[in-house]
Structure prediction request, 340 residues.
Amino acid sequence: MLSNIFLLKGKNFHDLNSLDIFSYPDDILKNGNRDFVRKVIFGHDHGVIVENYRTGNDSSNLKEKHELNQFALDCPVPQVIDGLNVYTSCINSKMIIGLIFDKDDNPYDYKEIFEDLLNEMLNNERCCKFEDEIETENFLITLFIDIRRYGDEFVENTSEISFKPTGIFIKVFLFGIDDVGKTSFARRIKTGEFINNSFTPTRKFNIEYIQKQNGYLAVWDMPGQRAFREKWFKGIQDTNIIIYMIDVANQLRFEESKRELWNFINKHDSSGIPLIILGNKTDLIKKPEEQDNTLIRTKQEIMDFFELDRINDRDYFFFFTSVKTNYNMNEVMNTLFNMV
Prediction:
């Protein structure tokens, strides 16, 4: 399965310090290993396109394509570098884009989708000029999600989960604004553990495969920062259940959370797909001496503020949860399987 994607861009590929290096979701230079980058560049290929960028030459054909906002793409090349399973392609003799797979994956399983997506995103859609950092990052995120979705749906991957003939398989699409507890939720239902996250909210799109007694879940966990929200719905195809998570302890962001929920309902063709709304972090608002009185009052306030009674194109359920204390998690899991 695809674990990382990166882009190397620069006028002089001989000078590693002058390169712009983008990667998602993990920093490929997190250990300061520029030797990995050098091996990617000089182990990629010995064809005309790569030789052009190594020497600084540019053919008239490539210049003409660039003026027409088209990109020349070379054939992807598999490499094993420092134990990593890498698959790279050169773009317009100026950039190298690379995929990093799990060590047991066969990169050739992804050759067609890699080439098709690059061509579609660069030559058939609005052209990415790779001049803006946010634009470049969004390009990588989109490509990463599409290839991960392809691997999840079309490339056989039985190492993470063993299927039983009687098991129910459920694809869960989990989203919400940042810092509401989505990744902690996915980790809790997979491992039963909670790690007290005090760091910056995750920027990583992830799929968690979870085996339960009555079936199997593939939880698509989407990052919630504003820069990533337009990419939320790249993976919604074939979803069985949608989960939207709210931080009930942070009323200052209720308006933002409400806006994103209704943007989804109004703009994306998902009618009929059941929706579970989770009001998470109840441990921060529920005092033991007040028991359930606080939650009863808060639930009505949330129902009114978010205008949940307007949802009429699907079944929906609302649950209070505390991923930290495991409050209501069993009820949520039972509902997931009963809704299918």
User: Anything to note?
Assistant: Confidence is low (pLDDT under 50) at residues 46-50, 59-67, 157-165. Residues 168-339 form a domain with the Rossmann fold fold (CATH 3.40.50.300). The longest strand covers residues 2-9. The radius of gyration is 23 Å.
